[in-house]
């Protein structure tokens, strides 16, 4: 079990203010990591930090626009100046609007690609530079079951998450010589704000219950085991992989 420890690790988690990001941040802190929690809402970030502290962990919080190259560079530099390094990066921040393709504006397409994909590139590239220098590091990208499957109401989301899975493979291949592992988690439907419509719409919910073999949505804490595995020495021979945590939804 010592292989799963994150003692003395510095882990940056984006989208840590709520949902799966908060669950992963709290879980990683419980395994010993100091969490650098990134989000857009200061109040929600403070709540995440409070939960981490209550569980005996430590954290630092940053409010940042992850689509702004300069803001990302400043945040990473500030973290390294304060904490010395970044050992683990979890690229979790994202949005999931549901719209028919004919109703998606160019501005909305750009917004989804910017937040879901470009931010992952900017952070991975910027944090990756110091990981390459130190010749060690661990990056975990959060994609989605819709990076493999399709939705008839979310073209931009599907495209962005499929790209993250491919980005994971390309980075894993490029950075393996520097002892940097890059892997991906593809969640299915979890009980979070992002799936509020699916949970409240009886027709949509019943449809999903027929498609999910385990016949339920996941609980946020059920994502923690996968991120602990991929961010710890327990997975030291794993890179370029995508782990689906979806109750069997992607079996179809």
From TrEMBL:
MF annotations from Gene Ontology: oxidoreductase activity, acting on the CH-OH group of donors, NAD or NADP as acceptor
Xref: PANTHER family: SHORT-CHAIN DEHYDROGENASES/REDUCTASES FAMILY MEMBER (PTHR42760)
NCBIfam families per the UniProt record, alphabetical: PRK07231.1, PRK12826.1-2
Family: Belongs to the short-chain dehydrogenases/reductases (SDR) family.
The protein, known as: 2-deoxy-D-gluconate 3-dehydrogenase
Native species: Desulfosarcina widdelii
């Amino acid at each position: 079990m010592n292989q799963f420890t994150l003692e003395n690790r510095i882990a940056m988690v984006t989208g840590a203010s709520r949902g799966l990001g908060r669950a992963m941040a709290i879980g990683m802190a419980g395994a010993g990591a100091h969490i650098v929690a990134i989000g857009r809402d200061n109040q929600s970030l403070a709540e995440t930090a409070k939960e981490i502290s209550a569980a005996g962990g430590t954290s630092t919080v940053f409010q940042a626009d992850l689509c702004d190259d300069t803001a990302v560079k400043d945040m990473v530099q500030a973290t390294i100046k304060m904490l010395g390094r970044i050992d683990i990066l979890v690229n979790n921040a994202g949005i999931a609007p549901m719209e028919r393709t004919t109703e998606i504006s160019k501005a909305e397409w750009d917004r989804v690609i910017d937040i879901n994909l470009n931010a992952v590139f900017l952070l991975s590239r910027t944090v990756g530079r110091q990981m390459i220098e130190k010749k060690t590091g661990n990056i975990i990208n959060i994609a989605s079951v819709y990076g493999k499957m399709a939705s008839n109401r979310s073209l931009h989301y599907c495209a962005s998450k499929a790209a993250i899975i491919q980005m994971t493979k390309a980075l894993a291949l490029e950075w393996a010589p520097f002892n940097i592992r890059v892997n991906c988690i593809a969640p299915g439907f979890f009980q979070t704000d992002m799936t509020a419509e699916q949970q409240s719409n009886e027709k949509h919910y019943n449809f999903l219950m027929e498609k999910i073999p385990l016949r339920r949505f996941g609980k946020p804490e059920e994502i923690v085991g996968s991120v602990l595995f991929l961010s710890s020495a327990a997975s030291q021979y794993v890179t370029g992989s995508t782990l689906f945590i979806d109750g069997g939804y992607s079996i179809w």
